Amino acid sequence: MGCFCSKNTRWTPGYEEPTVLAAETPFTVSEVEALHELFKKLSSSIIDDGLIHKYSLYVLCVQIFDLFDVNSNGIIEFGEFVRSLGVFHPNASVADKTTFAFRLYDLKHTGFIERDDASIANCIFLLKEMVLALLHESDLVLLDDDVELIVDKTFNDGDAKGDGQIDQEEWKEFVSNNPSLIKNMTLPYLM
């Protein structure tokens, strides 16, 4: 007779035990488990099959590429690369970091972070990841529904005018009141 698990566990293709991965990498078991949660979210963004497909990352990569391709010619030149990465330097101004983050979330390039954006799922995903990162720092654990409520509240707090979108001035004010929103925009090894 074989062994069978009575627990209704859904194993995904390519899943590896966190203890094994922790033994083979610098991560702790709890860090690997946190990375698995992030992986599950990324892998369910377009096709919920437990795998990250090229297109899932493609959408985000295009957005980031466009931020680096300052002159919009379809290529990133060395100067654009260095200047764009400059925003992550510890000496970069909060204003530059705030502007860069706004451009990242302005998915349609309309000058607004919009709730009804066709690609809002990516924006909400990034916003969720910011919320989860903040919660991780305080060792809080929340259910997905709770995180959704926090994301909604966060968007509503940023949308000071209540018009369903966040403009640049609202974003600047929101970041000045919540500096942790751009905390991850500084590369610590440059300090």
UniProtKB/TrEMBL annotation:
Belongs to the calcineurin regulatory subunit family. Acts as a calcium sensor. CBL proteins interact with CIPK serine-threonine protein kinases. Binding of a CBL protein to the regulatory NAF domain of a CIPK protein lead to the activation of the kinase in a calcium-dependent manner. It is found in: Membrane. PANTHER family: CALCINEURIN B (PTHR23056), CALMODULIN (PTHR23056:SF110). One of its GO terms (molecular function) is calcium ion binding. This is Calcineurin B-like protein. GO terms for cellular component: membrane. Pfam families: EF-hand_5. Keywords: Calcium, Membrane, Metal-binding, Repeat. Homodimer. Interacts with CIPK. Coiled coil: none annotated. Its main location: membrane. GO terms for biological process: calcium-mediated signaling. Residues 63-91, 146-181 form the EF-hand domain. It comes from the Eukaryota. SMART domains: EFh (SM00054).
